[in-house]
Amino acid sequence: MRSTLKMPNRNALLIILISLCVVSCKNKKEKPTEENPIDSVEALVDFIKTQKSEDQIAEFTFVQETIFFDEKGQPQNTSTWYEAIRYPKEFRIDFGDPKNRNANINRNDSIYVFRGDSLVHSGPEIQEFLILEGGLFHYSTAETLERLKSLGIDTSIFSTSTYKERPVYILGSTPNDTSKPQIWMDAEELYVVRRFSQGKQGELYEVKYDDFKNIEGHWMETWIEFHVDGHLIQTERYNDIDLHPSLDDKVFDPKAFGTYYWFKD
Questions:
Q1: What single string gives the DSSP state of each residue in 184-210?
Q2: 11, 153, 206, 256: which could join 172 in a potential S-S bond, CB 3.0 to 4.6 Å?
Q3: What are the residues facing 207 on neighbouring strands?
Q4: Contact by Cβ (8 Å): 234, 68
């Protein structure tokens, strides 16, 4: 039997082709050019804001398996953490069973530490990982650079190298100098793969991000290692990642601590 479907006319075909082009162009990655090379921290931040400004993650949650290690690198104990993030400045960790009332809440560059339902510490703190993962889309380039500087990163230094056989950008240092705060980013996918930061006692923390998974078009790490002065102290495995949690404001409100938990039924 001959088909009775009619072929679209020329105008309809043109509309379809234009629509396909818009979708293709929207999803196609731009690359640095000779006229606009990535040769500085400022240029990189500008490029990321241009490249990935659409369809950003607003908030997400995950359940984390945390393992602690002793000075000899031997695992000591395992804990389950429940974590919630809302860009640009909200981050919460609940440590274990909510009945224990232990949590850290970061909000507007301040931290609130609860232990046993009591607020035991509060004060200024910038959560540095929030800046380049999603915070920069809420800041100007100048403000992003200032926030990085406040963490001890020398934004006048920018270099390139390879890490695990992939090209990387290095913010704040050169490839052979890992003695100061710096951030390493995958040059193709633009996610952080390595970070060095200074502790309150002068110790040097190294954070390694790995096992990246593409979740709904977003590359996200699911494995993290923490090292202090070269010694492994902690690993983290992310599970049950939810990019659409619809978090209540009470999650990040220190005054509402103990009244609401996103991970409880």
A1: EEETTT--EEEEEEE-TTS-EEEEEEE
A2: 153
A3: 195, 226
A4: yes
Q: Which two tokens stand for residue 111?
A: 């931290």
Per-residue pLDDT of the chain in tens (265 residues, 90 and over written 9): 433 334 344 443 333 333 333 333 334 456 666 566 899 999 999 999 887 666 789 999 999 999 999 988 899 999 999 999 999 999 999 999 888 999 999 999 999 999 998 999 999 999 999 999 889 999 999 999 999 999 999 999 999 999 999 999 999 999 999 999 999 999 999 999 999 998 888 889 999 999 999 999 899 999 999 999 889 999 999 999 999 998 999 999 999 999 989 997 5
Cα torsion 138, 142, 146, 147 to 10°: value is 10
| Residue 180 in tokens | 């100061």
Place of tokens 């996610």: 191
Residue ranges in the chain assigned as alpha helix (H): 10-27, 41-51, 129-133, 141-150
d(CA 181, CA 218): 26
Helix (H, G, I), strand (E, B) or coil at 236: strand
H/E stretch holding 233: strand 231-242
Which three-class secondary structure state does DSSP give residue 235?
strand
Which residues are CB-contacts of 234 (< 8 A; sequence separation ≥ 6)? Answer: 66, 67, 68, 69, 225, 226
Q: How far is CA 112 from the centre of its chain?
A: 21
Cβ–Cβ < 8 Å for 194, 209: yes
Residue with tokens 């006048």: 156
Query: Using CA atoms, how far apart are residues 247 and 149, in angstroms rounded to an integer?
Result: 31
Look up tokens 């990085």; give the residue. Answer: 148
Distance, in Å, from the CA atom of 21 to the CA atom of 134, rounded to the nearest integer, reads 28
Element (H, E) at 66: strand 59-69
